[in-house]
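Ticket 4471: requesting a sanity check on a complex prediction with glycine. Repro inputs:
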Amino acid sequence: MNLLLLGSGGREHALAWKMAQSPLLDTLYIAPGNAGTAACGTNLDIDILDFDAVKKVVLEKNIELVLVGPEEPLVRGIYDFFKSDKQLSSIPLIGPSKGAAALEGSKDFAKEFMLKYGIPTARYSTFTRETIENGISFLKTLSPPYVLKADGLAAGKGVVIPNTLAEAEATLKEMLLDEKFGAASWKVVIEEFLHGIELSVFALTDGKSFHILPEAKDYKRIGENDTGNNTGGMGAVSPVPFADAVFLDKVKQRIIIPTVEGLKKEKLEFSGFIFVGLMNCDGEPKVIEYNVRMGDPETEVVMPRIKSDFVELLVAIGKEELDKTTLEIDERTAATVMLVSGGYPDKYEKGKEIIGLDDVNNSIVFHAGTKQEGNNVVTNGGRVLAVTSYGKILKEAIATSYKSIANIDFEKKYFRRDIGKDVGA
Ligand code: AMP
Ligand code: GLY
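Returned structure tokens:
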């Protein structure tokens, strides 16, 4: 089979790495890909938000299945574009419809959905410019810190958590009146702050049945001990030691099953990944957010733990026959540490030569922001490489990644030295 994977990050390299291992594969195309995905298939330099350009390569390269990595094409309706096109409608595109992608694209929609289907989440209310006074009254009913979320996609920056009521009121005004996040904050969700420890659970679904993939915990802040600005993610581990069988069963019964059933009842077509960001509140799971794609860098620990042929699973999803497949999981722990450009998540430079990639033998190096330039691989983004290792226990996996990292260098390389520490590494 010829397959097309859309995206260019560490997540896509991990997906491509896994897909490339399938005997079902003839050629894997990755658009646009990065220097790492080029080793798993053929990169195609197209803009994946230009759906006509995607259509052209699908037809030209005789693509038989498309997997979408990032959320943006999904939220913009690439699934619906395929379904409504005569030449594309029979080619499975693994990803949710535009309506279903609103679970990620609109926080207000996601909260309403959870309320309707009894899925545990923080108490909330949604406000607009017209109802800002009610928003201020609602803030007064909550105790600090306060959680304010821009309704729409805001490049992962749309959540603000002020510590005082005065700051919360000011933030609400900035979001609604000054359009702090542009159109994304025309609506603002205010919710109760949940205390606990976060993790993510992923379901792979064809809209009828699902497999629960290995869970993961990521490290979002730039600084050690979870300090400083939020990033896309600085590292991840799987499994998550505190997510025991009892907890994961609660997630399945109270969250995954009602989500899949709810989507069916709403007639929202969904194939692909349901990513549930969770808070473990004293053993009780509550949903912080939905995403309609895999996480990055979570994918860099989840894919290495899947033993089954991933392409076979994708093909089964395309036929709505996922219930006929099984999912086999590697019992080992996987841990990944992100190497980022100095200055990230604020200003950073690109184009720095990366050395030492060939000296890594005991880890898998997934490329995120990298580019091939002649014979060299150079940095091409804030997050540059995810260094993943296996271990019998978490400590071993993490130690192997840190050892491998010592071989890799580029100007102003930065990484957190405490990945997994809070859960036993
Ligand atoms: P999100 O963009 O929805 O993932 O939110 C970003 C981060 O804000 C999450 O990863 C949490 O760390 C935090 N957060 C979001 N909602 C809540 C909440 N209700 N209680 C506590 N922390 C939250
Ligand atoms: N690592 C968090 C995300 O992919 O949204």
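Notes from triage: The chain has twelve helices and 23 strands. Leaving this open until the requester confirms.
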